[in-house]
Fold:
Amino acid sequence: MTAPASPRTTAEALLPLLGGATNITSVAHCMTRLRLTLRDRAPVQDAEIRKHPAVLGVVEDGDSYQIVLGPGTVARVTPEFEALLVQARGTAIKEAQKARNATPLKLLLRRVAAIFVPLIPALIGCGIIAGLNGLLINLRLLPALTPALAAIASGFMALIAVFVGINTAKEFGGTPVLGGAVAAIIVYAGVANVHVLGHALAPGQGGVLGALAAALLATRVEKWCRRRVPEALDVLITPTLTVLVAGLVTLFGLMLLAGAVSNAIGTFADWLLTHAGAAAGFVLGGLFLPLVMLGLHQALIPIHTTLIEQQGYTVLLPILAMAGAGQVGAAAAVYVRLRHRTDLRRTIKSAMPAGLLGVGEPLIYGVSLPLGRPFITACVGGAFGGGVVGLCGMLGAKVGSTAIGPSGWALFPLLNGDQGPAALTTVAIYTAGLLTGYVTGFLATYFFGLGKHVLT
Structure:
């Protein structure tokens, strides 16, 4: 058996197939995809790229050319790819504009993703430790260890606003540490001594949304100072004014406004599941795959993070994860019915393990989307699965996730809810949603998702 190619070898193989270094204006990656902006689409060799053993699929979204490499692999290949570009063209690639013809909304969402996506590994790690700690507490095992695990799991979340501030300043062209310094004000215990409109501020008020706004303001103040402060005094005056001005505005304005918005998000999520959980779950589970296709799912990242910060878990992610279950069910139906399509069956067989673990791109772009109708029936499966989870929320058993990123079976270690972490009821509800998504996606696709032109 041939050993898998190294990240460097993969990057070296893909670069010439994309038209070389001069044809690439920007490079980024998410959890599974290498995202590129190209000068010219003509020299790209699609067929050869798709044939590469490391490539799971190719997606085009406007000017964004996305190569699906899978979780883990993309994080290793991207730095090697960027290094090749730097060697070939110097540092110009880092300064190139992303998505020259992108809409303002997509540019904004990409920037939001650039701020929050780097936080996902820490959210996952701390979330799994929190779930393990909850299981030990429920089973009354290792009582001397659980306080230590609680500290490990909670430390990052206590300071997540600082990391958001650092990433925000970095993304918008400011000094990262200044963005973090201003955002740190929000979580500083001493803000309880500050009174605004007759009320004391609460540490953490405004959360990640306040941190994002504070760091963005700090970046604007810093850039204003850089243009006007004499160079000899810049090292003293610019950081001082940046922290002072942005800090005062944060304390006497942004914390109140962002706190109100954060509270509204939490209140609305609770109200939605309590009063319209089944309908909300049905709609969200059914529409999530199209949102992913359009890149609009990135707008949910700050909402997930806010809910995790407030409540310890996001109730939206288990519902949205049902879209992947519908996709798995639809692919299984295609596998069963299209016995003569050995190419599709081979793709499904190799991609199904990833699909069960929540990585749906290989099944989406390799199976359901090219066939057309199975993509719709996959959405139907996701809708019914989401409806089941939402219905249970209406009945008083909310299911949430302590982190964002994983879905499918990979979400089990991160489950939490109003029944407590690692509760049997929480696991059972999520399992019921997955099974509903699998079965509904399978049946909808088996009976309605395959036309005669595909079956013959």
Remarks:
- The radius of gyration is 24 Å.
